[in-house]
Amino acid sequence: MEPKTIAFVGAGLSCAVLARELAERGGFRCVLFDRRPHLGGNCHTARDAETGVMVHTYGPHIFHTSNRAVWDYVNRFTEFGPFVNRVRAVTPRGIFSLPVNLMTLNQFFGKNMTPRQAEAFVRELGAPFRTGRERNFEEVALSLVGEELYRNFFHGYTKKQWGCEPSELPGAIIKRLPLRFTYRDDYYQDVYQGIPVHGYTPMIEGIASHPAIELRLGEGFARERAGEFDHVFWSGPIDACYGGRHGKLSYRTVHWTEERLDGDAQGTVCLNYTAEEVPFTRKIEYKHYTPWETHERTLVATEFSKATGPEDDPYYPIRSERDMAVLRHYVGEAREEKGISFLGRLGTYRYLDMHMVVEESLAFAARLGTEPADWPRFSVPEEKLFS
Q1: Angle between helices 102-109 and 115-126 (to 10 degrees)
Q2: Across the chain, which distance is largest between two alpha carbons, in Å?
Q3: Local structure of residue 96 (DSSP, 8 states)
Q4: What would the DSSP string read from start to end of 153-196?
């Protein structure tokens, strides 16, 4: 029996994992299309020719998970080096560790609080703003941390990153920013954390290395070609799949300027600049992502956030009320047709970290039977698209 031919729009992590699972199952020929000339999507890494530093081409990525199955899966394809992400915030009041933790609080307020005292102290800071009706980012943030912490750590940075007033953003965004009452200052608290020793692109090359997987890099995929395949998995923007006929979903994107310098430029991997008047959001010194390497020179990337224009790559879904209304139209249209399924950050219009992408792609593969006609339209239940 001839294998069924499956097209994958995008050669990033979500499509690579799903294609590998189908390829190993047998009975499928998987063809990965990507308009970019490389694997990995926004996870792509490459050596800088001048400094030898491993650069995350589309912005920094740290793999972190507490799911042992996900960790074991990615370790099948590469060796991970240990890396714990520690971020520092350059604020109008000085430099402090992020996320806000017990050290941050004691240094910022000049105190010597215990965890219990600090928790009570911050609760009092937020009390004047707590109404029980907090909805947007600013309302939720003020109710959690009060005026001083909000203005110094969150307001300016959030406004620069999202290009609007924090009061225009959903309150759920602040929930991704942890607040801790211990001295633990690593950004993520997952059990497993690291970065591939040789970069993410070789890892994804390993995932996609299978006789039943064909790569078509530097080749975009037109929706009109869907009929040539038994099924299409679409990891690009869902609105682009339908030509934007119900309206465009809104995203933020980022761009960088680069400096190559001698020695060590900033002494840490990431400095967030929280003041609104500073035009950029953060500076990344990439050689600190690979502490097992030694480099005499360094590369520092300064990150700027902007609205996504016609020629820009979308990064962060904004998910405003208007966006979610538009998304419902596309989800409804996808529900009514056969032959195309959506996955990944852009395909499902959600903020997803790498470990979430791997976990969802593995779970999605497990839900797929032998007949593409019966495959679900989305990698997750529809209600999850709007939560």
Answers
A1: 70
A2: 73
A3: E
A4: IIIHHHHHHHSS-GGGSBGGGGGGS---SSS---S---SEEEEE
pLDDT score at 309? 86
The 3-state DSSP class for residue 133 equals coil
Domains and CATH numbers, the chain: 4-41+198-244+317-386 (3.40.50.720), 87-176 (no CATH)
Query: Judging by DSSP bridges, how do beta strands 340-342 and 316-317 pair with one another?
Result: unpaired
pLDDT at 172: 80
Q: What is the pLDDT of residue 371?
A: 93
Kindly give, in sequence order, each residue whose CB lies less than 8 Å from that of residue 291, ignoring residues fewer than 6 positions away.
Answer: 81, 83
How many Å is the Cα radius of gyration of the chain? Answer: 22
Of 352, 348, 366, 387, nearest to 73 by C-alpha is 366
- Catalytic site positions: 176, 180, 252, 282, 303, 351, 353
Q: What is the pTM of this model?
A: 0.93
Q: What is the pLDDT of residue 171?
A: 85
Q: Which residues of the chain have pLDDT under 70?
A: none
pLDDT at position 167: 92
Q: Which amino acid is at 159?
A: K
pLDDT attached to residue 65: 98
Q: Where are the alpha helices (DSSP H) in the chain?
A: 13-25, 68-75, 102-109, 115-126, 137-149, 156-162, 200-208, 238-241, 321-336, 344-348, 354-367
